[in-house]
Write a structure and sequence with these properties.
Blueprint: H1 2-24, H2 30-45, E1 47-56, E2 61-67, E3 75-77, H3 81-89, E4 93-95, H4 107-112, E5 119-125, E6 131-140, H5 147-189, H6 198-212, H7 217-229, H8 239-242, H9 250-257, H10 259-267, H11 279-284, H12 306-320, H13 332-341, H14 349-361, H15 368-371
Antiparallel strand pairs: 1-2, 1-6, 2-3, 4-5, 5-6
């Protein structure tokens, strides 16, 4: 009977490992991955809490990405407590009486109000020996942690290490890309202190309108980057025209219009990842109009991308309501009246309705549905 029970338990754990490994491949973010690992491991080992501590090399700290039952992030020096000891030595630990162990740091329990009685901790180590973090389970609900539990936790930690590293690399690349986009946006904003902030305000309006329209997170992200970069081509416009006081001549206006072509040429040289490949198109089309009176291509109707139609409304409204070299800011009601008047002819009617609802939510417009 004992042998059959052991075989059944081994089969259950092997099945759990396979289930968890299959789930790893479907995770879309490091948070989703670690949440899944912690939850599944806590259930299989029948314990009170599962935590994953990742190493922050900049701060030389371990921090909790997941601590089930916790709402606040936990951070501590990477050489502190049982987790720190396991991280430093790379050796797992099973402790049956935690409060009596000299390596235990009671400060976290004191801060959270939790009571740690027993725990099992395994290092998360990459295939090249890189220290990634620590996997820790606390307080078995029945009995004590044993060698089988440790073997199971080490198996999960080992498989998780590579995926965690991959996600960390992707997030690092994303942060670098985000920094590049912000630097590009700030470089054009700095050209003219009077209009500084235009791109960021257009981005905020565009993102909120996209959310109001129910677009998915990928579309919204593409619109966000496109809105930030929609005027980047102005870097190729001479200051004498860009900052001119008073009305522009026809020739100067024609030169100003070339900024979208500069934008297209510059952004097309950036190798955007698959989900962001529409950034150049959205950015370039913010001066197109439904009736074909826009530029650079005179597109009409739905030939203009939805992203371009959204940014167009945000760009016109922000420009009308901001100080310019050649005019004072227009009162919000007047600017909004222009946007509404153009709905269906110049601007997408549904985009205008969504935009006005956003302004209404921000306290900048009234009764949007009656007038849009």
């Amino acid at each position: 009977m004992a042998g059959q029970a052991a075989d059944a338990e081994a089969h259950r754990r092997n099945a759990a490992i396979l289930r968890i490994l299959r789930s790893i491949g479907s995770a879309h973010s490091i948070r989703q991955l670690i949440t899944l690992l912690a939850r599944e491991t806590r259930i299989v080992l029948n314990c009170q809490r599962a935590s994953v501590f990742l190493y922050d090399p900049d701060e030389e700290e371990l921090w909790s990405l997941v601590a089930e039952g916790e709402s606040d992030e936990i951070r501590f020096p990477a050489d502190t407590g049982v987790a720190g000891h396991v991280f430093e030595t790379g050796q797992p630990l099973v402790i049956a009486d935690v409060p009596s162990d000299p390596r235990f740091n009671p400060e976290i329990d004191a801060r959270t109000g939790f009571t740690t009685r027993q725990l099992i901790t395994a290092p998360i180590i990459g295939p090249g020996g890189e220290k990634v973090g620590v996997f820790q389970l606390v307080n078995r609900l029945e009995g004590d942690f044993d060698a089988g539990d440790l073997e199971f936790l080490e198996a999960i930690a080992g498989e998780a290490a590579v995926t965690i590293q991959n996600f960390q690399m992707l997030e690092s690349r994303r942060r670098m890309f985000e920094g590049l986009v912000n630097a590009l946006a700030e470089s054009i904003e700095s050209r003219d202190p009077l209009t500084a902030g235009h791109s960021y305000q257009v981005m905020l309006y565009s993102v909120e309108a996209a959310r109001e329209l129910g677009l998915d997170s990928g579309q919204i992200e593409t619109i966000r980057y496109a809105a930030l970069l929609h005027d980047y081509g102005k870097i190729g416009i001479p200051d004498s025209i860009l900052k001119k006081d008073g009305a522009l001549s026809d020739d100067e206006r024609a030169i100003i219009r070339t900024h979208v072509e500069h934008t297209e040429r510059i952004l097309s040289r950036i190798e955007f990842e698959r989900g962001l490949r529409d950034v150049p198109r959205f950015a370039v089309e913010h001066h197109e109009r439904l009736d074909g009176s826009g530029y650079p291509r005179g597109l009409t109707g739905e030939d203009i991308s939805l992203g371009g139609r959204i940014i167009a409304v945000a760009d016109v409204f922000e420009s009308l309501t901001s100080q310019r070299h050649y005019r004072s800011p227009m009162p919000l009601p007047e600017a909004l009246a222009i946007i509404r008047k153009g709905a269906g002819e110049l601007f997408d009617r549904e985009v205008v309705k969504a935009f006005v609802r956003v302004l209404s939510r921000l306290g900048l417009a009234e009764e949007p549905e009656k007038k849009a």
